[in-house]
Write a structure and sequence with these properties.
Residues 29-128 form the CBM2 domain. The chain has one helix at residues 2-21; strands at residues 36-46, 49-58, 64-71, 77-82, 84-89, 92-97, 101-102, 107-115, 122-127. The chain has a single domain (35-127), classed as Sandwich (Immunoglobulin-like). The strands form two sheets. Strands 3, 5, 6, 7 and 9 form a five-stranded antiparallel β-sheet that branches. Strands 1-2-8-4 form a four-stranded antiparallel β-sheet, with no helix packed on it. It is elongated. Helix content is 16%, strand content 50%.
Length: 129
């Protein structure tokens, strides 16, 4: 019994020492996946089409650039877009921001109407270099 108590005390002491020795994380460092909050909705859908609405908000403390792509499923395609321009190469649709830089706390919205099965955009945010 005394052996278990000493072993437990040793393990607890090592854990406490490691916790005290670990460097504190800086509050200003934001993991890359957490630069933006992306909210995607499908406010309307019918047998051969849909509407997608996207809002991107910079949740970091630094300016970021954003971009988005949509991979359509043939024979589907993007009928129209708003809040951004689009460029098409095969089944890939590039959402081209009117204003690609988002300051901390700033948000931008865009959307599109599509034909065929619903496809959602892939949005990326990166710090401005």
């Amino acid at each position: 019994m005394a052996h278990r108590t000493r072993l437990f005390a040793l393990v607890a002491g090592l854990i406490a020492a490691f916790a005290l020795a670990a460097p504190a994380a800086e509050a200003s460092v934001v993991p890359p996946a957490q630069y933006c909050d992306v909210h995607i909705t499908v406010p309307a859908q019918w047998s051969n089409g849909y509407v997608v609405a996207v809002t991107i908000r910079n949740i970091s403390g630094v300016p970021v650039t954003w971009s988005a792509t949509v991979e359509t499923q043939p024979p589907g395609y993007i009928v129209q877009a708003w809040g951004a321009n689009v460029s098409v190469a095969g089944s890939t649709v590039w959402i081209l921001p009117w204003s690609p830089v988002l300051r901390p706390g700033q948000s931008v919205s865009f959307g599109y109407t599509g034909s065929g099965p619903v496809v959602l955009p892939r949005v990326t945010c990166q710090p401005v270099v």
